[in-house]
Amino acid sequence: MLHPTPRSTRWLTVALVAYGAFLAVVLLTPTAGPQSSSVGWVDTLAHRLGAPAAFTAPGRVEFVCNALILMPVSALGSVRWPRTTWRDWTAYAFVIASGVELVQGLLLPGRSASFADVVANTLGGLGGAVFVAVLRSRRSAP
């Protein structure tokens, strides 16, 4: 599945469009209430699973969540468009994250823009693409 067939290409496109719509709703809502509660839920889960307190500080949990939210885009995109590289997806993630933060900062008074979110989202874009690249290299290794 790391080299798509015409049928899987359609499903990957549908998945990317659906996830893109989900991201638009989550990232461009007028307030950060749902996002904050999601970070709180992840923090509670991490504590219950025994994660050390140093790793579950609220700022760190939020950073990780911001990275994870963009990973599916670059992972699905890397499978959908196999010729794109991890460099491409890192750049795309940076552009997407910067655009979202600009909209949040300039057009959504209940939201705030954050350079840390741009960094986290960009790392997430890198992470998803690298994950697919590693899987591809392992499958093609003798």
Topology as a string of helices (H) and strands (E) = HHHHH
**Number of strand segments:** 0
Helix proportion of residues, in percent?
over 70%
Can you count the helices?
5
Strand content: under 5%
- What is the CA-based Rg, rounded? 16 Å
Distance N to C terminus: 18 Å
* Oligomeric organization of the protein chains: single chain
Label the structural class: mainly alpha
Assign an overall shape.
globular
Low-confidence stretches: none
What number of domains? 1
The main sheet comes to: none
Mean pLDDT: 90
Protein name: VanZ-like domain-containing protein
Pfam family, one: VanZ
Domain VanZ-like: 57-135
Keywords: Membrane, Transmembrane, Transmembrane helix
Descriptive report:
The chain starts with 5 loop residues before the first helix and ends with a helix. It is mostly helical. The protein is built from five helices and no strands. It is 77% helix and 0% strand. The longest helix is centred in the C-terminal third of the chain and has 26 residues, at 115-140. The chain has one domain.
